[in-house]
Amino acid sequence: MLRGGRNFEKAGTMADQFDVIVIGAGPPGEVAAGRCADGGLAVALVERELVGGECSYWACIPSKTLIRPGDVLAAARRAPGAAQAITGRLDAAAAFAQRDYMTSNWNDEGALDWVEQEGIELVRGTGRLAGERRVQVELAGGGQRTLTARRAVVLATGSAPTIPPVPGLAEARPWDNRGATGTSEVPGRLVVLGGGPVGCELAQAFRRLGSDEVTVVVRGGRLLAREEPFAGQEVAAAFEAEGIAVRTRTEVASVRRQRPGGPVTVALDGGGELAGDELLVATGRRPRTGDVGLDTVGLEGGGPVRVDRRLRAEGVGDGWLFAVGDCNGLAPLTHMGKYQGRLAGDVILGRPRRGPQGHLHRPAGLRGRAHRGRGQAGRPRHPRGQDRHRRGGRRLRPGQRHRRHQPAPGRPGPPAGGRRHLHRPRHPGAAPLGYGGRGRPGPPGAAVARRAVVPDRQRGLATPAGDLRALAVASATSTYLRRRRSRSWTMNRRTVAPRVAVAALLAAVLAGCGLVQEQARSAPAPVTAPAPRPNASAQAAAAGDIPGIVRRVEPSVVTIQHDQGTGSGVVWSKDGVVVTNAHVVGEVRDVQVAFFDGQRVDGRVRATDPDTDLAVVEVERDDLQPATFQPAPPVVGELAVAMGSPLGFQNTITAGIISGLHREIPGSAEQGIRSLVDLIQTDAAISPGNSGGALVNGRGEVVGVNVAYIPPEQGAVAIGFAIPAATAVDVVGQLLRNGRATHSYLGIQPDQVTREVAAELGLDEASGVVVLAAIDGGPAAKAGLRPGDVIVAIDDARIETVEDLFAELRQHKPGSQVRLTIIRGGRRQEVTVTLVDRPS
Q1: Which residues pair with 125 in a beta bridge?
Q2: What's the predicted TM-score (pTM) here?
Q3: Has 613 been annotated as catalytic?
C-alpha cells in the first residue's frame, strides 16, 4: 500500500555531516526540519515510511474523510424537506475512493516538492541514535548510512497503537487505526475495543457506512472517560439512536480467530461472547521510542522522552537532543507537534522567544485565521506572483484559499494523483493551514458563556499520548446528541427528543469523579495568611514585583502527569500533600508529580470532591515548600499571577488582575456540573494544563486554584476562573480528615425557567429554578415541594438560575434550615426545608 516518492539518499555505507538531523517526517518533524532549513542550516530528514506521517495517511485525514458522508446524510435527515429526498444508503465504495484521494493513495510523491525547495536531504530508512550526535540509518534500499549532526538531533518518531495483553488478541490480527482507515470493505459485524475518540468515531463511521452490527466494549463505566461525563452520555445516546451497542464495565477474557480474514470471537469475563467479522482495537497509543537508540545516549526507551521547557531531552549533556510531537508525551496533537517543531527549530537556531523568567512564548505567528485573514497573511509569493501551496506543484487559481478547492484539469472531481496534505508551514511567520475556527461568532453575554465555557485543559487536561483530538474540538466522535426539552409535569420527568449533530466544540464545564473513601487520619494543616491590611494588595500590585512573587511561590507549584494527561497542582503541606482539580486526576489513582527542583515522584490520589472540583494527591516527600493560602477573598482590581503547566510547559507564569468575585458559569448546571459557582474571575491567561495551578496575589499568597476559562473563539478575551482559596482550605481539610467533603443537599432535579416554561406556568418573568422532580425521601419532598414548583429565593437571596441555587446551597451546612420562596399555581409561598448531607 505504501508508495514512497523520490529517493534522495545516497547508496552504500557512508558518513555524512549535517547541522541538524530530524528522525521522523510527520508534521512535527517536517516543521522542525523546515524551520532549521529556513534559518540556513544543512538538514537531513530521516523517514522510514511516508513523508507526512500518521495524520496524513492513517489518522486525522482518512478518518475524517470516512466520517464526513455519514455526517452529511445525518444532517440531511434532520432537515424537513431534505429528509424526504433521501432514498438510499451511503455509497461506501465512493467514500473509500474519496479516502484514497485524500491520502494520495498512500503515495507521498506530492509531499516532496518542499523538501527539495528547502534544500533538505531526505533519507529513506529507519533511523536510530548511535551515540552523541550520531544517527545510523538502515536504508530502505539496502545498506547503512551514518549521519553526524554538528548542532542537534530532533526525535519526531510519533506514537503507535497499544494492543492490550489479552490472550489471543495479537494472534487474531485485529485492526488498529491503520487497519480501519485503510480498509476498502465494510464489515457486516464490527466489534470495537475501547470507548475513546478513535473507537467512538470509527464505530459510528462504519455503522453509517453500512455495518449491520457495531458493538463498543469499554472497560470503564462510560464512553469518553477523559471527557466530562455529559459528553459520554450524549454520545451513548446518539449511539443508541443509531443502533450501536455499548457494553460498559466489560473486560475481555480472550480473543480467537480460526483463520486469517475469518470471523472473530471475543470472550468476555464473567461469561458471554461477541462475534464479529472484524475487530478494531482502539485502547490508546504509546510513544514510538522503544527502538530509536535512546540507550546509546543514556536514556531509557519505550516511554515518553522527557524534555525541558526548550524541548531538549532531559539527561543528555550539551542539549543537542530534542524531542517533539507524540514522542515526548506533552500534548500529542498534530498542531501542537507543529508548534513544538517551531520552538525546537528556534532554539536550535539560537533565537528562542522568551518571556519573564526565561519561559518560552507561543510564537507570535501561531494565530488563528481570524487574526490573519483566514491564514493568508505571511504566505510567500511564487516568483510569478501567484500563491503556491508549499506542499504541491499546482498553482492556486485566483480566489482559491487551498489547493483542495482546485479541480483537476478537465474534470470537476479530485485529481488522479490524490491530494497533498497540509502540514508543512508556508513561512515561519504564517498561520498553519487548517488552524482556526469557522462559522459565525455567537451573540454576546450569557448566551455565549452558556455555549462557550470550557474546562482549563483540552477538555480538562493537556492531552496525553495517543489522542488524535484537536485542541478546540475535543469531541471523540463526529456526533453528539443535542437535546430539546419538553416538560410534562404530570409525568414528573423530561422527555428528550434526540437529534444527532456534528460535534464541534463540546461547550462544557467541569465535572469530577467519585470520591475515594479512606480511613480518617490526622490532617496536615495548610499554611494560611492573616487577613490583608487595607490597601496592601493595591500597593503590591502597584509595585508589580512579579519576579519576586514567582521566586517565592514557584517551588510550591507542581506538574501532575498520568497516562490520560497533564495538569498542575499546589503544595499544601511539607509532608507531601498536593492540591489539584478533581478533573485533572479524573478516574486515575496513580500519578507522577514533577517538582520545581527537578525531582519526579510517584503520587497517589487520596480523595476527590466533584462538587468543588478539588482533589488531594500524596507523595513520599517531607521537604516540600508549602504555598501560603489566603482564605480572605481578594480585592477586585488587585494583581493576579497564574502559575502552572499549560500544555505541559512547566512553571509558566502569566499575570493580570482579579476581574470579579462570586462568579457563576451560565449554563454549567444544565450540563450536570455543580462545581463552577462562587468562582474568582481573572484576566491572567489560563490555558489547557493550568488546571489545579495557583492564582497568586501581590503578596505571594494563593487566592485561588485555577479551574476554567472561556476560549477566544467564543469572543472572550482573557476570561479565566479559579476556585477561591477559602473553598480549598475548607474542602481539602475535610478530604484529609474524612476522605470526603460534606455538601448541603436539597433533593430536587432542577432546571432553568426559560421563556417557554414561564409562559406554560403563567409566570411574569423567565427567572428562577423549576423543580422537575423531588427525590423521594429527600429534604424537598419531606417539605412538600413537588414538580412544577419554581424556587425564586433562598432566605433573602434571590434565585434566578440553577447556578444561583448551587451557589447559595454552598453557603449552608448540612443540618441547617433554609426558607424557600416558591411560586406554585401563580401564587408565592414560603417553605422551610432542613438540608442534609449530599449522599455519596
Answers
A1: 139
A2: 0.50
A3: yes
